[in-house]
Design brief:
The structure is a homodimer. With about 220 residues, chain A is α+β, with helices and mostly antiparallel strands. Chain A has two domains: about 1-140, Sandwich (Jelly Rolls); about 155-219, Arc Repressor Mutant, subunit A. Helices cover about 40% and strands about 25% of the residues of chain A. Chain A has helices at about 5-10, 20-30, 85-90, 110-115, 125-150, 155-170, 180-190, 195-205; strands spanning about 30-35, 40-45, 50-55, 60-65, 70-75, 80-85, 100, 105-110, 175, 210, 215-219. In chain A, the strands form three sheets. In chain A, strands 1-8-3-6 form a four-stranded antiparallel β-sheet. In chain A, strand 10 and strand 11 (about 215-219) form a beta hairpin. In chain A, helix 5 (about 125-150) crosses helix 6. The longest helix of chain A is centred in the middle third of the chain and has 26 residues, at about 125-150. The N and C termini of chain A lie far apart (about 45 Å). Chain A binds a DNA duplex (30 and 30 nucleotides) through helix 8.
Chain lengths: ~220, ~220
DNA sequence: GAAAGTATGTTGAATTTTCAACAAAATGGA
DNA sequence: TCCATTTTGTTGAAAATTCAACATACTTTC
């Protein structure tokens, strides 16, 4: 576990936890680490989820595929970030989404009960973890609202521009990389990929932006 | 405050709190009650929110209106339910949504800091409240996912049917009332109202459903 | 109970999206 | 380097949505 300390220190779940307490804490929580190949479905829609995941390396996507095969991407989760908190905490019997490895990745899994309920050793840090978890759930809600703000726009162009503006603001620059390739971006924006490509070309011609793969520059 | 005890007992924030402790708790939390007329904007988008709201009577809607005047409804909040938890807990400086009275309503407001931080009286119930708040945030996340599942469908028909199926399941019956009128339903589904009316008519002709105002029957 | 106001339904034209098929460019291995 | 694969861009036709305008039904208020 030692090799993950650097990442875990930056994880919102462990905010305010001292470095020297982390290892002991992890063993008390029954934390375990697993690796997954690209495209592997780590947790499948429709099944219960008891554990919270922390991305240690690589990345995962929270997504759903409907009966027609249309994929909808909710978010991409990067190292130090959590996923599945809401489903694990709420004790849902059927996850509404799947968790899929978007790159080869290492994931730390912690059973949610171990966080929520005081352990037999009566460690004092559970309250801190619950507080952190709550803060994280609040932040996640904001994140979803951001996606809703994007997808609630009517046209492909408006959705794309709203998304790019948010990304520019987040990066503090008009020039930035997005985490999605074209198909993924289309699935995040809930639009057709070819239509999205066409729209990007148009915006380029109009001089609104420059783009090359995942790099965008707003003009 | 006594007259609200019945409602507050059922509020998820006070789950596990004894009836006789409630009143004392409320005064410690600095709870206050306010009334609003229909259509009044209780909290406006873009402003900070420090307080959590509990609907005591009537109802409010969480919504956003973009620069073109398109309204997007996120959810309707009914008596005993909370709103604004995520924004207050995360300490956001600019709310991404507005809270609007959809009927004349009475709202209890509790400053979020009073819940999150132990008070000078050192009451023992803060931990319980934080735990309840966390559970509620988790449930709210699921609720938003449900909306995302609905709006991620491509056509008006699919969005509507997905929504009605969810409502039927929630009510445990093929015959149920929805909380929205046509315009509100269109704004929740993120579609055009007249197109929605047309689609409902078509479904009626096809014998898929019956409907009259807010009442629907799936056949 | 009539009038005014609000909500819902209907229609057709303009706009936009989706879909399928293919071309071009980039990537990753052998 | 070359080949196979994946990703991205392009296009046109079909389908769906939006928009505006109006008809009808229902509510509310005086």
């Amino acid at each position: 576990m030692e090799k993950y300390i650097e990442i875990l220190e930056k994880c919102p779940l462990f905010e305010g936890v001292k470095r020297e307490d982390l290892l002991r804490m992890l063993s008390c929580l029954g934390a375990r680490v697993a690796s997954f190949d690209k495209r592997y479905t780590i947790f499948a829609e429709g099944r219960p989820l008891r554990a919270i995941g922390i991305v240690l390396s690589g990345s995962v996507q929270v997504e759903r595929v409907d009966i027609y095969g249309n994929r909808s991407i909710l978010t991409k989760v990067h190292p130090t970030e959590l996923f599945g908190e809401a489903f694990a905490c709420a004790g849902v019997e059927a996850m509404p989404v799947s968790i899929v490895a978007s790159e080869p990745c290492e994931i730390m899994l912690i059973n949610c009960d171990h966080i929520l309920h005081t352990c037999s050793n009566n460690c004092g840090f559970h309250q801190q973890l619950i507080y952190n978890l709550m803060k994280d759930l609040a932040r996640k809600t904001l994140q979803i609202h951001q996606k809703l703000e994007v997808t609630s726009k009517k046209t492909t162009r408006d959705k794309l521009m709203e998304y790019l503006m948010i990304m520019a603001k987040k990066n503090g620059s008009n020039s930035f990389d997005i985490p999605y390739d074209r198909q993924e971006l289309a699935d995040y924006l809930e639009v057709d990929r070819s239509g999205l490509s066409a729209e990007i070309s148009k915006l380029r011609q109009e001089g609104v932006l420059e783009s090359r793969k995942k790099r965008f520059v707003l003009l």
